[in-house]
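Margin note from the TA: students keep mixing up input and output lines. Inputs are the sequences; the output is the structure of the whole complex. Example:
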Amino acid sequence: MSTQAEGPSTDQREIDERWMREAIAEARRAEAHGEVPVGAVLVADGAIIARGHNLRERAQDPTAHAELIALKAAAARSRTWRLSGVTVYVTLEPCPMCAGALVNARVDRVVWGAADPKAGATETLYSIGSDERLNHRFEVCAGVLADECGSLLTDFFRRIRAARRGH
Amino acid sequence: MSTQAEGPSTDQREIDERWMREAIAEARRAEAHGEVPVGAVLVADGAIIARGHNLRERAQDPTAHAELIALKAAAARSRTWRLSGVTVYVTLEPCPMCAGALVNARVDRVVWGAADPKAGATETLYSIGSDERLNHRFEVCAGVLADECGSLLTDFFRRIRAARRGH
């Protein structure tokens, strides 16, 4: 039984880790197709309303990141572009395109796993999502199951480099 | 006959204005459907390879900005996500989502009309596109037919406000 002090945050962490495992499952689907393993799920009212995984190579679409695919699917399902009340779980910190799309979609909260030193746009390189000048802000929760999310990527790129060396 | 000093830049300006007029025609298509009038065309090797106009309300898609629609169409047509050699003409300065997508698509050059004080992400609020930390940069040419591009928007919003007042 948890104490009152740690109760709510522990509960929220458990909930966040549960949904992040679903985002990781999406990332593994990307990997199974030879794509960089990044996955996302969108949650509203305690249920997944959309899923997405990186499909850039298979779709040959520069916008086919996990978050954008899931946002489009959620909007189509909800029949509205305004995704208020939605929490986004994604294994990698969103890039500027995806962070901007999350602002445009008016999501409430973004939970991500591994930081992206090269393109992270909610904390690492930019703080899109907490910029008071833009017309919407969302809560960011960084680093949920970060090691597992990051290992997916480092293992993927290690295998690619090994394959290129002929191993 | 132009002098050598003004020759190339005058030529480029004429070319840019020619394609921007096509982007304005796209913006008018958005307007005809009651959408905020923003339009884009993508040009490669002296020809339009894709067009797009804002469709957010009709599509109920938070990502359905002119640039994203045109980028996806160009990638589908070219059968590659890598749109090197492409110049993007858009009537309004790209938002963070669209500026990020233009980086992800590796376009060469972005020419825009009116600045966006609320969300402009290649010059006004952010300089995505000239950020050395990201893995691609593009040339930005701002303010081409700016008055015409901006008037489309101010006239549109003026009509909406008048309609709301019952005029």
